[in-house]
Amino acid sequence: MSINLDQAQQTFIVEAREQLQAMEESLLQLETDPGDDDAIGAIFRAAHTIKGSAGLFGLEPIVSFTHIVEDVLDRLRNGSVEVDAGLIAVLLKSSDHMLELINVAANQGGTLPPPALQREVELCQILQEYQAPSPAAAPTPAPETNPSEPGETRLWHISLRFGQDVFRNGMDPLSFLRYLQTLGEIVDIATLTDALPAAEAWDAESCYLGFDIAFRSAASHGAINEVFDFVREDCEIDIVAIDDAAAPQGNTGLVTTSPEPPEENTALVATGELLGDQRKTPRMPAQIATDKQPVTSDSKGKDGTYVRVNADKLDELINLVGELVIASAGASLLARTCHNDPLQEATSSVSGLVEEILDGALRLRMIPIGETFNRFRRVVRDVSQELGKDIDLIISGAETELDKTVVEKIGDPLMHLLRNAMDHGIETAEARLAAGKPAKGHLHLNAYHDSGSIVLEIADDGAGLNRDRILEKAQERGLVPQGASPTDQEIYNLIFEPGFSTAQAVTNLSGRGVGMDVVKRNITLLRGTVDLDSQTGKGTVVRIRLPLTLAIINGFLVGIGQSTYVIPLDMVQECIELSEDDGLASREQGYLDLRGEVLPLVYLRDHFNHEGPPARRQNVVVVRYAELKAGLVVDDLLGEFQTVIKPLGKLFGALRGISGSTILGSGAVALILDVPALLTQIAQAENRFNPTQLQQANAR
Amino acid sequence: MGAIATTRQTALAVEEEAQYLTFMLGTEMFAIGILCIKEIIEYGNLTVVPMMPAFVRGVINLRGAVVPVVDLSARFGRPNSAISRRSCVVIIEASSADGLAQDIGLLVDTVSAVLEIPASQIEPPPSFGAKIRADFISGMAKVDGKFVIVLEVDRVLSIDEMSQLAEASPNALEVDAP
After folding, report:
1. pLDDT number for residue A349
2. Are B104 and A651 in contact (CB under 8 A)?
3. Cα distances (Å, whole numbers) of residue B54 to A295, B27, B104
4. What is the C-alpha to C-alpha distance for residues A138 and A634, in angstroms, rounded to an integer?
5. For chain B, what is the domain count?
6. What parts of chain A have a pLDDT lower than 70?
């Protein structure tokens, strides 16, 4: 049972995080359009759901804090509080705080660090201002302000008959009772065992118990009823007020304690609010039902029919599929050597299916980048306020899908680039107006597919990079030798060098020169590249190019002597046979005439120091990466192969030009070429013969 | 618990016999503690990794895992081992500074035997004269009246050191102009 509850709690935590995400999005939506009732409704529902489920798990800190937030939201919903910037700000902070509380709950048994507690108190105070019904009412909701039930607690009789399936539905009756206690005091409780069957008919997973509870609380019928929202469907619940027995307790401890420690403070507000709630229309079951309906239909409409699967299970599956691919390739190879036609046919249909399974399995891991992009709305909003700039974030290509791991790991570098663009790229409103541009700055986040990789673009319409200043700084730091004349592109990319910063002032956000190199390193770790384009006065575009997936690539097998290498198929453009005569001529020149185009050649046999004479007939594989194009000269072309990437390990960390390895159907290991690294390495090596650029090459 | 562990350790160091795998490299015999050895396989099907220092022979497929093979002779600064019918790869679990274990294959000429050598038969390493780096030697064991060099596996197969060597290797930097 406890395991089940743990799992349920995990689900709650995951869902609560999603709810908070949705809440944040709606808040930002509300900020742009203050009259948006749907957004208010969505925010309220998110907070309400979190509170409800948190109560179920007895997560008291979340319940008490969320309750205050929910109350303010309720007032917002019925129009007694107006939407203003301050309110949005405090609600955003509150949602951050709720996230923190949930994270604490997720770590089980952890407590909030003191600064967070401090923040909670501050937030509560601000929220209270919005919560106070009117200036006439005292800040502490004193009992006498409520004419109907002034702080008087009543005695309720609650009769509970839990449904048999309550355990199977992941509910624990005990937690409801625990949550009930937050509303008042359980005076007496009787466990009803009359539904217990005979021992032989007993099913350990069924719940046969009922409870009769005498409950003393100041809460309204609706509020008590709400406690059982989650089990109402299959339980019999009867809540009756025992009016005569109402003990006029007047001042309960909770209401009158002076609000000194933060815990007490929130508790006080919570109780006070319940009074207020009661003053208004008590929330009746029917109303809750209509409340709830849109939530379910909403979320259903949004995420279709999703199955939540543990990421580990998915990874395991993909690993297995990877092995399956290798095994089936091995089987095909064997079948071919057997010269048995039916067998070959059978293996080829198997490998066809395996490929489909592989594609399907890989698609499981693909998630749209949009979620990550949307997170940045908040960042842009906060940072632009902090900087006093008016910046608009435009998002496109949010539906572009890429590997989950990549999405997770690209968040930080993107965040960094965005902050940089906002801090350094986009000018202040005055400077923009002076330059004849609209005062509002624009940031554009875009994602699209391009030749087997995904490209993420961060574009701003700011001042652009100061080419001369970067060059000056670079020369100062010895990154570029005096007198050298690198291209604009090279100069711009210098900002990715470690410790490079041209900012005159170090701000809170950026300018310390730490970061761009980290950004580049993180992207390189994902087997991606980053480059930058800038036009003075018009803005900067940073382009991140990432592989679609990390685990498996389509490879093109080539042979050099006895060794086999894999070239990522996305980069292969075409293959040409190099006849003996051509071979000799181009060997001398180092390039090939490809339909009138100069194609630089890389003799992999020489480059990799393979011994032995080259094959008489050689082949050229034309590869392209971004703007670089080259011909790799190899002995044999061995065809396409689905390649499961196996990392080479730390020992080969310094190895450039080879990104990993894979196991062929024959059981031999083949190395995967890292074409971009290979080409840049060769370009650098050639530059070394050029004395003016010698220093630059070394500096890199 | 702690007490038991300490007694065990001292016992191991002082009198208990430990098992060692002995193998030949050229005409010399070496030994390594058996505890870090996972298996011994026949040499074969090796894929050469280019642009690596001479002591990294290449990688092999060990039941689906790609395992690097280190030529022990080259690691000691001698010429590469000549491959013969009796060449073997000893798979060893090596640890690096960040605590991650990685399997590494050790190419040796011949595997001889598993011996029990009492700690009393192992002498401290000489400070020089063994022709291999002193920190590679854990001790000198006496077996049948001959000295056998017991290797300090963690030092010999230090991934951190070897990857640094790979980085600084002239082989790795040497790029032929096409």
Report:
1. 92
2. yes
3. 66, 21, 15
4. 85
5. 1
6. 1-5, 108-111, 131-152, 169-170, 230, 233, 243-304, 451-452, 499-515, 548-551, 626, 687-700
Tally the C-alpha atoms within 13 A of residue A692's C-alpha that lie toward its C-beta.
Answer: 5
Say if the Cβ atoms of B68 and A603 lie within 8 Å: no
Q: What's the CATH number of domain A369-547, 3.20.20.70, 3.40.50.720, 1.10.10.10, 3.30.565.10?
A: 3.30.565.10
Six-digit token string for A585: 């001529």
Burial class (CB in 10 A: 0-12, 13-18, 19+), A600: middle
Which domain range does residue B88 map to? 17-172
Q: Is residue B11 part of a domain?
A: no
Domain membership flag for residue B33: yes
Contacts of B104 in chain A (CB under 8 A): 651
Write the CATH number of the domain with boundaries A2-141+289-303. 1.20.120.160
Q: Which of B49, B65, B100 sits opposite A652 (nearest CB)?
A: B49
What span, in angstroms and rounded, lies between the C-alpha atoms of A620 and A592? 10
In Å, how far is B105's CA from the nearest CA of chain A?
12
CATH number given to A552-699: 2.30.30.40
φ, ψ for residue A418, nearest 5 deg: -65, -45
- Do residue B178 and residue A670 have CB atoms under 8 angstroms apart? no
Q: Distance between alpha carbon A613 and the CA centroid of its chain, in Å? A: 52
Q: Domain containing B97 — which CATH number?
A: 2.40.50.180
What would the two tokens of residue A676 be? 């971009």
Quick check: is B177 in a domain? no
Q: Write the residue in B51, B104, B163 that is nearest to A653 by C-beta.
A: B163
Domain locations in chain A as residue ranges: 2-141+289-303, 152-249, 311-367, 369-547, 552-699
Residue of B nearest to A320 (CA): B64
CA distance A327 to chain B (A): 10
In a domain, B104, yes or no: yes
CATH of A152-249, one of 3.30.70.1150, 3.40.50.300, 3.40.50.2300, 3.20.20.110: 3.30.70.1150
| Closest CA in chain A for residue B160 | A651
Give the span between the Cα atoms of B128 and A649, in whole angstroms: 33
Selected residues 62-91 of chain B with any CB under 8 Å from a CB in chain A: 64-66, 68
Planar angle of CA B127, B131, B134, nearest 5 degrees:
35
Q: Which segments of chain B have a pLDDT < 50? A: 1-14, 171-178
ipTM of the complex: 0.79
pLDDT attached to residue A256:
39
Q: Which of B61, B80, B83 to mutate to test the interface with A (most CBs of A within 10 A)?
A: B61
pLDDT of residue A50: 83
The residues with which A157 forms a beta bridge, in sequence order, are A214, A240
Task: Give B177's contacts in chain A (Cβ within 8 Å).
Answer: 590, 685-686, 689
**Which are the contacts of A107, defined by CB distance < 8 A and separation ≥ 6?**
none
* pLDDT at A566 (0 to 100): 92
The per-residue pLDDT for A132 is 58
> Rounded to an integer, what distance in angstroms lies between the CA atom of residue B178 and that of residue B171?
16
Q: What is the pLDDT of residues B19-53, one digit of tens each?
A: 999 999 888 899 999 988 999 999 988 888 888 88
A602–B178: do the CB atoms touch at under 8 Å? Answer: yes
Residue A689's pLDDT is: 53
Which of A608, A649, A661 is facing B51, going by the closest CB pair? A608
Q: What DSSP state is assigned to residue A182?
A: T
Please state, rounded to an integer, the average pLDDT across all residues of chain A.
75
Q: Please tell me the predicted confidence (pLDDT) of residue A181.
A: 76
Q: Are B91 and B100 in contact (CB under 8 A)?
A: no
What pairs with residue B19 in β-bridges?
Answer: B116
- What would the two tokens of residue A566 be? 């894999």
Strand order in the sheet with A210-217: A184-192, A210-217, A154-161, A236-242
